[in-house]
Write a structure and sequence with these properties.
Blueprint lengths: L7 H53 L7 H47 L17 H27 L2
Length: 160
Amino acid sequence: MASGEAGPETDAVRREFALERYRYILQQINAVNENAHRFLALYQTLATALVSAALALFVGYRNWDVPASTARGGVIGLLILATVVAAFTSTLILVGALAWLDFRNEECDITDEVVGPGFRKRPRPGNFLRWYETYVLLFIIVSVIAMWVLAAFLLLPAMR
């Protein structure tokens, strides 16, 4: 056999390597899916704690003899922290979605080579309305906007 020709042993090694790579890709896709849930739980926990602290400050600043301007600054600071947590969580979810797309394309490359072209359809970013990450991101955006709107129209004006 001339060098460069693939023998039965080489084909078997390539198939075994492709199978192991395919298993790894499927594990990574699963990890990316699980991470989105973890990031949402992290956001919910931290946002709830920060907003609770802001509300506690709003309710108790007079009893604690904290000047209104300091209390307003504290509420704004806590909302800024909640916004930073939201931005960080959104970034992690977006990067996870991009990683998922990359892994799915690699999965399709392997199945095209080993099984046959078109065995798995490639993911289409246009299907983003069917991805739960889209709705997690929308939830985060809407909740941050709601926090700021409620603070701006209810909490901060009452702290005079």
